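re: that chain from earlier
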Amino acid sequence: MLGKKKTAPSFIPEPTSERVTSVIGPGITWTGDLRGKGGVRIEGTVDGEIAVQGLVVIGETGKVNCRTLQAERLIVAGAVKGNISCGKLEIRSTGRIWGDVVTTNFSSEDGAFLRGQMRMEDKVEITDTGSDPHSEALENQPIEPASEEE
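^ sequence. v structure.
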């Protein structure tokens, strides 16, 4: 190939919202709200509201107990007890969800578990990621631990 110019392969990094930038590891228990932008992987336990503009991954050892979990993209391989509002939801074969779901895009593997109602929408807004956690009266209500059931 004479005269053809070689070009270096181009590298296009993923947007920050599609990468995990923070990890709550196994053995860690987080009590309180988790809000912000970026990506988070949960392998421990979170008791509190989650509102993330980005990716949230609940790993196989991860457990979330909340009233609401909001994310642009959510991958569940662990357990979530609470209502979910997200742009894209993936439930892996080990994933368990107890709660209602509002999403624009859904996929699941064989063995995935969902107990609740699902509603598909054209668009889902992720709200309240930067507000004061004490701005809503509901935020001051205690979160009751959910019993393990299937």
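Confidence is low (pLDDT under 50) at residues 131-150.
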